[in-house]
């Protein structure tokens, strides 16, 4: 028996190892395919770049014919940058581009073996690591190749406090280059986002001033200002200028630093203060208001779509601004998508200064007549009634709520919509039915719109089970008390 168990266990182990080995093989195959595709893409990119520099780790293939024999050499670039070309010469590749090295190598072979059909080809670009330190999430070594730019090396390593305007690249010779990635991205100055080389080191500085701007500008966002740059530079250069409706007489600045208040403070600039290039501090937030915010407003309430709710039985209220002189015909056509399927647009009305003005929205949308058009007034409230009525079911039912009204239905139809009566709470299907005016209806009556159906909680068993523990406890206390009294006598 034990031998049989050992045999079965051995079989399962072999099968498991086979499956595990197969999974490893499949994963290795997939990984190798990805690596090959990446190498091929890098080779193609390097061959298309005339200034691709010869890099430590590059692998080149030298092919030529000598005395009728095909000769092939694989040449690896090591840290010395010295390349042996088929025992014909040793070339110093340091500082050369691939094109320069290719020309020099092929000329040497061609000189020694004319008509040799020589080819010198890059087959695998070298990779190297560059350390990234300073104001970063964590120190890291970025794995790069010769066509990797600075932005790729620091991707995913910056903190909210990192500077992109003061990044140092220290070469292996000790030369320091300061780069501004904002200029590279905004102005296309790629000298500020250079290719990296073996031996480089990257140090990220901490930003001294970052400010935000929003509102009536073309490019809202958070920007790192250089020394001497303030409000005018933030608006005109970084935010790319003001929008047409910008109101520069009401510029609002929220300040966190540079203030005596621990919670910060708001400052409202006059037009004159703004034109004097108001000085900004770190973490300032600038808001440029719009004249559109001063436009009059109306309210729309009732059966309209809203981002907050799409329930058919929930009234929604929104506000909308308009230009003086706007007519309801134009306004309603521009907002036709607001009206839900349950909207009774024929019986809408406007409340204006406690006066009710009927308005048939369907005529404005589909049969416009200029003689009945109405001009919008500030603080008008446009009411859109519902076409759909509802019936409320509450009390001892599974799903209390409001349900769409259907003509010629009795109470049991709506009780079933609510999941039925909970028998443990309600006995004999006891319900109270009232219409929208408070009149009591019988079970045989058809339910009218906006009626209320209340399933009573009247089950003796439910109340007994609910209060029995309390009664039992009280009786136990009484019995104990009487026993103590009797014993004491």
Q: Any descriptors?
A:
489 residues, alpha+beta, five-stranded mixed β-sheet
Description:
This protein is α+β, with helices and mostly antiparallel strands and 489 residues long. Helix content is 28%, strand content 27%. It has a five-stranded mixed sheet, with helices on one face. It has a five-stranded mixed sheet with strand order 12-11-15-13-14. Strands 17-16-20-18-19 form a five-stranded mixed sheet, with no helix packed on it. A hairpin with a 2-residue loop joins strand 18 and strand 19. The longest helix has 47 residues, at 2-48. It is elongated and about 115 Å long. The model has no long low-confidence stretch (mean pLDDT 86).
Task: Tell me the radius of gyration.
Answer: 41 Å
Q: What is the makeup of the main sheet?
A: 5 strands, mixed
First-to-last CA distance:
78 Å
- Broad structural category: alpha+beta
Give the beta-strand count: 25
Share of residues in helices: 25-40%
Strand content: 25-35%
Mass-distribution shape: elongated
| Number of discrete helical segments | 10
State mean pLDDT (0 to 100 scale): 86
What is the strand arrangement across the widest sheet? 7-6-10-8-9
Low-confidence stretches: none
């Amino acid at each position: 028996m034990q031998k049989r168990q050992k045999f079965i266990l051995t079989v399962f182990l072999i099968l498991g190892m086979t499956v595990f080995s197969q999974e490893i093989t499949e994963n290795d195959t997939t990984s190798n395919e990805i690596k090959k595709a990446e190498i091929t893409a890098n080779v193609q990119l390097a061959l298309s770049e005339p200034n691709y520099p010869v890099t430590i780790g590059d692998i080149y293939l030298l092919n030529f014919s000598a005395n009728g024999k095909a000769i092939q050499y694989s040449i690896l670039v090591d840290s010395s940058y010295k390349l042996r070309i088929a025992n014909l010469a040793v070339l110093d590749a340091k500082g050369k581009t691939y094109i320069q090295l290719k020309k020099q190598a092929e000329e040497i072979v061609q000189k020694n073996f004319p008509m040799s059909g020589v080819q010198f080809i890059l087959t695998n670009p070298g990779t190297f690591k560059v350390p990234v330190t300073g104001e970063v999430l964590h120190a890291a070594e970025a794995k790069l190749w010769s066509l990797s730019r600075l932005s790729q090396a620091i991707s995913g390593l910056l903190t909210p406090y990192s500077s992109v305007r003061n990044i140092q690249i220290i070469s292996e010779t000790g030369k320091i280059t300061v780069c501004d990635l904002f200029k590279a991205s905004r102005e296309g100055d790629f000298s500020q986002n250079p290719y990296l080389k073996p031996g480089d080191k990257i140090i990220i500085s901490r930003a001294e001033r970052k400010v935000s701007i929003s509102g009536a500008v073309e490019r809202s966002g958070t920007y790192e200002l250089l020394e001497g740059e303030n409000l005018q530079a933030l608006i005109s250069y970084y935010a790319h200028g003001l929008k047409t409706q910008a109101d520069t007489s009401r510029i609002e600045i929220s300040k966190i630093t540079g203030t005596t208040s621990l919670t910060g403070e708001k400052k409202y600039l006059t037009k004159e203060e703004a034109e004097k290039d108001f000085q900004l501090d770190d973490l300032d937030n600038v808001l440029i208001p719009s004249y559109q915010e001063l436009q009059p407003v109306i309210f729309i309430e009732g059966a309209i779509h809203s981002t907050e709710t799409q329930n058919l039985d929930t009234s929604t209220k929104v506000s909308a601004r308009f230009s003086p002189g706007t007519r309801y015909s134009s306004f309603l056509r521009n907002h036709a998508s607001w009206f839900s399927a349950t909207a009774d647009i024929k019986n809408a009305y406007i409340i204006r200064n406690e006066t009710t003005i009927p308005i048939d929205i369907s005529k404005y949308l589909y049969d416009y007549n200029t003689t009945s058009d109405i001009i919008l007034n500030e603080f008008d409230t446009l009411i859109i009634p519902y076409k759909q009525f509802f019936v409320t079911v509450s009390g001892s039912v599974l799903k209390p709520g409001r349900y769409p009204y259907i003509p010629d239905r009795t109470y049991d139809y709506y009780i079933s919509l609510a999941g039925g009566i909970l028998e443990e709470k309600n006995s004999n299907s006891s319900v109270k039915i009232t219409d929208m005016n408070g009149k009591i209806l019988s079970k045989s009556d058809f339910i009218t719109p906006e009626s209320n159906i209340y399933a009573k909680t009247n089950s003796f068993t439910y109340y007994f089970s609910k209060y029995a523990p309390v009664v039992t406890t009280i009786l136990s206390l009484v019995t104990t008390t009487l026993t103590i009294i009797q014993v004491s006598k």
